Amino acid sequence: METPEFLIADNSEFPDKIFILHTEFPRFLLDVETEEVEWFDAIEEEEGVDLETEIADLIGKAFDFFDREMEGYE
Predict the structure, then answer these.
(1) Per-residue tens of pLDDT for the chain, all 74 residues
(2) Residue 38 lies in a domain
(3) Per the domain annotation, does 28 fall within a domain?
(4) Is position 1 within any domain?
(5) How many domains does the chain have?
(6) Which domain, by its residues, includes 12?
(7) Distance CA 53, CA 51 (A)
(8) CA dist., res. 20 & res. 29, Å (int)
């Protein structure tokens, strides 16, 4: 089954929360309001890779996805 890279998620236990789920490695759940991230995969430093920049880029892509999705509701 092919899955999208990002999904918007909600839960009735947290009715005022919206989350973005990243389905590829490294998998994470991002709280849109607080910007807290829950990582599901262990992330290790690799030679020649700036981990901080890679994470910031990935979270930026998640927020870009969210903004595009919300434009569809307006």
Answers:
(1) 899 999 999 999 999 999 999 999 999 999 999 999 999 998 887 776 788 888 999 999 999 999 999 998 87
(2) yes
(3) yes
(4) no
(5) 1
(6) 6-71
(7) 5
(8) 6
